[in-house]
Amino acid sequence: MTWIRDLQATLALDLAFLTRALDERYPRPDAVRDLGERLLDLGRALIRRADHLNEIVLASLPAHGWLPQAGAPDNAARLAHQVGRRPLRCGPVYLGLCGAACYPVFGQDPHNHTKRYARCTECQSKGGAAMLRE
Asked: Torsions phi, psi of 74, nearest 5?
């Protein structure tokens, strides 16, 4: 975490220096390379962090990846939607592959309660038939 704080403290100065340097006829390649390497390190660290956070999210959802629809009208049949391998979260709900809002009411669904809901055909056509985790 200290590297990101260091980057936060110095990035504005580095970018200002880089902007001035690139306007010059002969910019310093060492400074340009240093900033590029730091940004690559940041990118790799952010991807690792995102993968770690995604694993935490997946551990809280059913392995099959199907969640009941949130907020269905009273007289409408509620469907189950596939959230995919990298679920998008919007507040307390997740977005299905078709864009429908879903709520993980059963958590990891150890008793397979989601099975009683009809599956969204659009989610199935977008690859929802495959298991979320093997």
From this structure: -55, -40
